[in-house]
Amino acid sequence: MKQKRYNSEEFAYVYVVKNPSYNDITLAAWDSVLYAGTPVIYDTRYGLDLGFVLGPAPQPDGRESAGDASVHGACLHFGTEAEEAAEEEADLSSRDVHQCEYCMGCQVAKEPEKIKVEGDVPWLDHLATPSEMAKYNENSAREERASSICKEKIAKHGLNMKLITSHFLLGEPKVIFFFTADERVDFRDLVKDLVAVFKMRIELRQVGVRDESRLIGGLSVCGRDYCCHCITDKMQPVSIKMAKEQNLSLNSMKISGPCGRLLCCLAYEYDYYVEEKANMPPEGTKIRIDHDLWRVSEVNILSRQVVLSASENRTLYIPFEEFYYDEESAHWCVNEEYQDDLFSPD
Q1: Is residue 154 part of a domain?
Q2: Are residues 5 and 45 in the same domain?
Q3: pLDDT by residue (tens digit) across 45-76?
Q4: Quick count: other Cβ atoms within 10 Å of Cβ 57?
Q5: Does 63 reside within a domain?
Q6: d(Cα 153, Cα 150) in Å, to the nearest integer?
């Protein structure tokens, strides 16, 4: 495998680059402005191959921090009153119109700019030429046939393995076959047969069931493409503890993806839930309010309210900001002014 090329320049344009064939996503530097969709040649984990620029590398802008409750969602655009009025007047009744088409924030493309290159960020090898694009399209057309041949050979040798996909590398004569298997597979005879057919280097890569979804993609329960396929290729560990922390159903059918493993998105908000709950009374805590003893039954992160219950099926919903921890008494309390307003006869 060719070694990744690094450059001594301190400042450069850094881009997010993705190989759509096996969902390789990485950061790479270049010395000029490139825009989304630009085909480039870069060093992947399997060798020199073609990828597409997704856009400039994301940079922290200081607008949010861990546990920041002021962040209102993925779209951080809050326009002027005039812009908001124009958005409200826009005709959004058509099924073919997406609301982001009228959001001024969503439509402003980030212009690439030179930044300080920190860490081992490799450089792109070069921009793809027309002949390389033609070869890439030719290879893509051959991959379905290659997969069919490989499946025939697997059946011939009676191997307990499932072929996922195949890919012809652009930078060298090599074809990669990705497969899953429950145990180690001796595929030496299979490789000999494939070499005889393709007359080039053969590489078989065993991947896990989560990687299968990452490679081929598909629609998840939310109706969008798999996160592991369209957002990132880094498979974070996901545990049932994350579902418990977010008060989600523990029914495995509801919190598992098509791969049969826990949903990747369970990890996205877990840290935020932990941070927020650390600043609130834990469930089961008893708090004295208006001479009665109330018990914390739920800490609702989404509504930012603590649910308390008492005798006679009484329930209170109190905002996060009304709670404080009294160091002197070592007890959680509710602001006196809020209690006065809450139980005021008016």
Answers
A1: yes
A2: yes
A3: 889 999 999 889 876 655 555 555 554 444 54
A4: 17
A5: no
A6: 5
201 and 215, same structural domain? Answer: no
Q: Are residues 190 and 167 in the same domain?
A: yes
Residue after which a domain boundary falls, among 128, 151, 185:
128
Q: What is the rounded CA–CA span in Å between residue 308 and residue 299? A: 9
3-state class (DSSP) for residue 305? strand
Beta strand pairing status for 174-180 and 201-206? parallel
Residue ranges making up the domain that contains 34: 1-57+96-128
Give 123's DSSP letter.
B
Of the candidates 9, 54, 70, the one whose C-alpha atom is nearest the C-alpha of residue 304 is: 70
Are 233 and 262 within one domain? Answer: yes
The phi and psi torsions of 245 (rounded to 5 degrees) equal -65, -30
Residue ending a domain, among 228, 245, 274, is 274
Q: Tell me the average confidence (pLDDT) per consecutive run of 10 residues in the chain, 346 residues long.
A: 56 90 88 93 92 84 53 49 54 50 51 84 94 95 95 95 94 93 91 95 90 83 81 79 89 86 87 91 92 92 92 92 92 91 77
Give yes or no: residues 321 and 222 share one domain.
no
Distance from C-alpha of 276 to C-alpha of 110, rounded to nearest angstrom: 31
Residues 196 and 229 in one domain: no
Sign for the pseudo-dihedral over CA of 331, 334, 337, 339: negative
Q: What is the rounded distance in angstroms from the CA atom of residue 277 to the CA atom of residue 66?
A: 13
What is the model's pTM? 0.68
Give the contacts of 59 (CB within 8 A, at least 6 positions apart): 115
